[in-house]
Amino acid sequence: MTAAPRQKPFRALQNRDFRLLWTGQAISQLGTQMRIAGIGWQIYLLTHDPLQLGAIGLCRVVPLVAFSLIGGSAADVGDRRKVLLIAEAVLMFFSAALAVVTLTGMVNVWWIYGITILSSATNAFERPSFSALVPALVPRHELSSAISLNTLNFQIATVIGPGLGGIIIALGGVQGVYWIDAASYSAVLMSLILINYRPVKRITQRISLEAAIEGLQFVWSNKILVSTMLLDFFATFFASSRTLLPIFATDILHSGEIGFGLLSAADAVGAVITSLIMAWVNPNRFKHPGVILLVAVFFFSCFTILFGYSTFLPFSLACLFMVGACDTVSMVLRQTISQLVTPDELRGRMQSVNMIFFAGGPQLGELEAGIVARLGGAGLSVVTGGIACALIVVLISGMSPTLRQYRFEKE
Predict the structure, then answer these.
(1) CATH homologous superfamily of domain 219-411?
(2) Long-range residue pairs from 146-149, CB within 8 A, at least 24 positions apart, any chain
(3) What is the pTM of this model?
């Protein structure tokens, strides 16, 4: 057998169209994370009520799940670039609307909730179309590199955006981050206009309940897709510890505000570094991606358990760093496998079903973590969640030989 040819790092960026879209998305993602931080800050200033602050999560996830199947069908009907152009323009308008109501003094919590709900409903159309468009911009053997680079975009924005948003709020008020977010959409809009994308004729001709059901049936009949989506859901449902970090910082690690900040950033730093590595090496070269995926989620569970037991801040930070790293490996491989096993005409609907899993898991997981923490303490909540996640990995590994044996196509 001949050796695989050496591949250049960040190979997907050699493709002009993907490079344009990736750059535009990088700018837009940064603005989005600044806006998210600004909304949280503004709601708390207006209400001083943690419950009303927490309600913003429901405003984001409920419309996203409710409209996901329609959004996926829209991505599979016609020109995904046109769907994205409309969605990004609408999102730009909503960010500008937040800035205007804030600047004029009209703003209240219901304005913020309402605009957030409408923005989230729009995201239900934007996300499947974006995910389904990427495979059309790069060769199949560079898809994992492209997904790694998109993950890197998101993680960097998650690390930098909130801090930069705080500086903007301090200098010019919360309306400043909303104006910047609105302006940032122009970057992704311009990139969509400039790419040389030619839509193919779709088998599905119109948005319908039948088309949505067809997408659900395809996902349900594909064992690899079911396995990867269940892994994602249960990992985020059982083993998410982020919502309990304030308790760990104050009551367990006794590290105060500085410790809380470090804990909040640790998994994101691990995710950024791992995304960079994954984009550099191109995971398409992995010989056993299904096995690596299962191992990554298993170690995600193990480091979550160790974090739950830890009473030493440096060790806790190291555990969360590795949680972020393992989660990124899992995310890149899950998305790559899902894209490769799905025909182009079904990619939007597949992504819409996937969106239900990755949006629902963390939100329900926060509730589960809070209930167990109330009954038995934060440490017990994290440890039992990690154990449950590890058991799920073992169960799915045993029940899905197709995933264990999966191989990427040779170039």
Answers:
(1) MFS general substrate transporter like domains (1.20.1250.20)
(2) 146/12, 146/18, 146/22, 147/332, 147/335, 147/336, 147/339, 148/275, 148/278, 148/279, 148/282, 148/283, 148/332, 149/10, 149/12, 149/13, 149/22, 149/275, 149/279
(3) 0.82
